[in-house]
Amino acid sequence: MSERILVINPNSSLSCTAGIAAALAPLAASGGPRFEVVRLAEGPPAIATWRDWYQVAEPLCQMVEREAAAAYVIACVSDPGLEAVRMATPRPVLGMLRCAIAAALTRAERFGIIGFMETSRPRQRRALQAMGVETRLAGYEPLNLPMEVLTDPSAPRARLQAVARALVAQGAEAIVLGCTGLAGHARAAEDAAGVPVIEPCQAAGAMALLALRGRAAEDGGAAAARSFAAE
Amino acid sequence: MSERILVINPNSSLSCTAGIAAALAPLAASGGPRFEVVRLAEGPPAIATWRDWYQVAEPLCQMVEREAAAAYVIACVSDPGLEAVRMATPRPVLGMLRCAIAAALTRAERFGIIGFMETSRPRQRRALQAMGVETRLAGYEPLNLPMEVLTDPSAPRARLQAVARALVAQGAEAIVLGCTGLAGHARAAEDAAGVPVIEPCQAAGAMALLALRGRAAEDGGAAAARSFAAE
Amino acid sequence: MSERILVINPNSSLSCTAGIAAALAPLAASGGPRFEVVRLAEGPPAIATWRDWYQVAEPLCQMVEREAAAAYVIACVSDPGLEAVRMATPRPVLGMLRCAIAAALTRAERFGIIGFMETSRPRQRRALQAMGVETRLAGYEPLNLPMEVLTDPSAPRARLQAVARALVAQGAEAIVLGCTGLAGHARAAEDAAGVPVIEPCQAAGAMALLALRGRAAEDGGAAAARSFAAE
Amino acid sequence: MSERILVINPNSSLSCTAGIAAALAPLAASGGPRFEVVRLAEGPPAIATWRDWYQVAEPLCQMVEREAAAAYVIACVSDPGLEAVRMATPRPVLGMLRCAIAAALTRAERFGIIGFMETSRPRQRRALQAMGVETRLAGYEPLNLPMEVLTDPSAPRARLQAVARALVAQGAEAIVLGCTGLAGHARAAEDAAGVPVIEPCQAAGAMALLALRGRAAEDGGAAAARSFAAE
Amino acid sequence: MSERILVINPNSSLSCTAGIAAALAPLAASGGPRFEVVRLAEGPPAIATWRDWYQVAEPLCQMVEREAAAAYVIACVSDPGLEAVRMATPRPVLGMLRCAIAAALTRAERFGIIGFMETSRPRQRRALQAMGVETRLAGYEPLNLPMEVLTDPSAPRARLQAVARALVAQGAEAIVLGCTGLAGHARAAEDAAGVPVIEPCQAAGAMALLALRGRAAEDGGAAAARSFAAE
Amino acid sequence: MSERILVINPNSSLSCTAGIAAALAPLAASGGPRFEVVRLAEGPPAIATWRDWYQVAEPLCQMVEREAAAAYVIACVSDPGLEAVRMATPRPVLGMLRCAIAAALTRAERFGIIGFMETSRPRQRRALQAMGVETRLAGYEPLNLPMEVLTDPSAPRARLQAVARALVAQGAEAIVLGCTGLAGHARAAEDAAGVPVIEPCQAAGAMALLALRGRAAEDGGAAAARSFAAE
């Protein structure tokens, strides 16, 4: 049976969990590692405050200790508990925000972040600081939408496109979606902004595949080892 | 038929091209985009100098203009011609070094690079500068091995492990393989160093999949759009 | 009755709590705010891991909500839960590491940190990143001493002096004691190193006094308001 | 008799000197070190130009050589002569601007400065550069008020509140008062801006107390030395 | 015969080449090195794209190999091929943009750049990154003028003065002319902006003279060697 | 009569003044601006301390006010009084250290400084900070030679070559001579180190010529104004 990448949504929302799974679906491939998306049943309805952010670290660690997997993804775009979870397992652990920022840096030199709320910003700043790329943030625009609008399949699109364009006007050459649940709008945002838009679930999924494939490559890698090396 | 990711080795070496293809093989999945690895027949035997680095930009552009693909990877770990090629197509274009550095930043806050030769260093510094993460480079260690050793399936392993350990001693918490053709040694290097080792072909491959999946996700993304959004 | 500065040791150790109180004693003044040092009875014996670091945030918040005070100090030299506690009260909340680093920056342009263990380093790096002064860290030297040596009134002194001198050799022009309980050795370390040594309990205490005095000054501040202002 | 902290106003203004003393009064405590505020009788009426800034260094050094004290504060918010005065005595010497910036960094990650005049800015930039935190300056707003307004007990308050709010709008999460004589308005500014406001005389006073208490702690510090140490 | 500084315009434009020569004329002195300005006959009409930028590197190298000179200047304000040309000769090779930025840094701490087109910006950013001074760029303003206006002796002046003033309003304390051909307007821009304006041909010319004079000084430098040395 | 560039040695040493003049001689050209090198008769024998550094600012200003010139150079490699002197005249004022650092940045991305004494280092750090290039300093090596050795025409050469090589080993790709009086050894140091060596008197001289020529160019600049502009 194929390897499992355990994607843990640190909040308790079922619809949020389903949205993450939907975003990851296109990355799964038959025969390859499979993404299993779970939630912290005891988590808060959303990671909306610093207290939430700190508090989910321990349950995340405990779930990782309970649930063996080939790799783990913390499925919240402020990377809560990342350092702690990494101590709880020798397997790769990825944070969605760091992965999305990294992906943005492969496509452009300046990027903007579309946040959930203005209050998300200081938590997301921590990831920028940890990666050393705070000065590459061209702008930050919170959606500040009520949940019923945000989760509607079409309602938030116009707002998302507007803030994407606003970030480009501020110098962003790529855009990071700073919350989950917006995968269905990523293409529309990209079309509106004219720059790459990075969806964080998919960014983390791709990095988890990379972390596993890097090792899988070894098994049949004789050809690679015989190859010419340059720069 | 599935989408094609065109991976262009800017040098003319057939064995190098084969090595890149071998490194990418584990990332391919049935039904997903396929990696097609080609070489610049008119390229130099290796990108070993700044002149090589500048000179391959135009042939890369011309190949991209000739060959339609869903995404492109410049398969050399100093990202030659990247900005020019991006002007030659509206499709995503990825550089292996930027992708490998980005991947390292998702796993650690400081990384080291194992280079081909000491002379590769200033070219690779350009990518660090472009990404704004020069201060995150904990160390740089060139392999400085003769080609016949480097391309041997087992000969370079001890040297690779030694420099990986040296980088960890300098503070590296992840390691970027700074040349292609070493995929077969990545696991051994990781085991020796005790930190994640990033293989650049695979890093770029994963990022190319992400760039395409981000758009593919749209098509079946109704569930995603209906999902709860948080941070 | 005078204002209370509540100094909360997030670990459960009584001797650690006593050490913090002893370090703060010289800063208290009759008529001024008083330092009250308490511990988290439910805290871990020490903040020795990332899990400890994340886990104490919520009990810290709850204690702050329960215990009214004029200002709060989180009495651990990795500033656990700082952002969360700041959301739990409108009163000033100070972290010992940020205060000690700030104090070092008033005395010198490069500083070193003497840590408890090598594993403390990544947590302490977060504070440097949050303050934007990571490049001003000239060196980091962990004590790596067994607890029975560390808490002995004289045993750790020689080691402390040696690492202080080592940091100066690495370019440190001031030294931050990166764990509590070393106040009794600060002068000896300063004499050995020949540069200012910052004790974190006292640094946070001084900053808490400042946060309160800034407001107290208002009451009798007519003279100040009448004074000449320049640069 | 208690230790003396000599606070030297490098300008010759008596009212400015009185304002500094008034600002420091709330920090003094019976039995603790006492603040003695003096002026450079030969100094200029204000440190208003680079020439003033350079020129007061030597008289400051000479006063320090003449007047023994436990610690010294240069009482001007552009830290003139700081490095020179530090060579003139082995005792701690503190600059008000560095102390105020450091205090701001203990309360927030971005701060603004309210300057005396636009022309003060390049001098104050030197302190930011020396501390390595230039990128943490969210904004700079000069008061640009005539002296008779500035020294009026109530006249400058509205302007001060307005610029404090303007700095918050620019991203400041704490505010440094960049000239002396405004202590009487600090609370009003804080209330208007909703973020911590740092008064520089008091910031330097607190740091001077810390510098002395760090050593005083040694004498009765047996309990501290016996305490448990963590992180 | 005097030494020759070969100034190579990488584009094929005769009028552009003449403009460079005119800008350099005031730096030449009888008996000193002479500037000889040539063009790449096979170059593009202007370096207007990344492809142009990459493509001229090899012809520049070949010309340098063919044409012996005491020093070389690449006469385009995006420094194309600089690293490659430096490998093609042991003699000093200077890029106009780096020289102009360096000159600006000798006059001020923040500078602005007046670019040819908005699309010139990412290429010019590479030089800022290579020099490590990206954060010192106060603003970037493209002229975006049609060529017939740009090359008119008086037509572009008003626009140039306007953007120079705009850069000062953004914090620029010096201005770099980011394209050749504007030497005739430098004084007018300086007068309009009230800050130093750096003309890139002249900046590179001065640096080339320095590179040669440094060695010439040796010959008659006995007095220098006997002189007193301080700081 | 030609324009005068007044080069002011802020120390009182006649031999030092002569050494500066000797270093500048090769830059002078018949018909061009002339360098006139003077000393501060009331200055200290050398700028060897922070007090010296501060104290010469005012006499420098006064000399500049007394002596009309087309441009001024402060002839000491720690740029004392630079900001003050710039307020004393509308004419260009250049500091030797900033000019030498700028020149180094046109030749390489990392540089080392050869200092007079270890105690010169913090003063020279100020210029690096002001220019924003502190992280580009690969190493700092003081000569620490007695004056009679330093001023001997041949005695210091071996030491200079040794420290130049040491800086290259530390990553320097160019070297700044951090004191005057070494012009006679610049070529020998360059030959020993294999990287460009920048002599500060000449660097400042070249920048002063540039500052003047930029304006001179205007007069005969019709051709320039008619020229084609590109990037």
UniProtKB/TrEMBL annotation, chains A, B, C, D, E, F:
It comes from Siccirubricoccus deserti. The lineage of its organism: Bacteria, Pseudomonadati, Pseudomonadota, Alphaproteobacteria, Acetobacterales. Belongs to the HyuE racemase family. It comes from the Bacteria. One of its GO terms (molecular function) is amino-acid racemase activity. PROSITE patterns: PROKAR_LIPOPROTEIN (PS51257). InterPro entries: Asp/Glu/hydantoin_racemase, Hydantoin_racemase-like, Iso_Racemase_Enz_sf. Signal peptide: none annotated. This is AroM family protein.
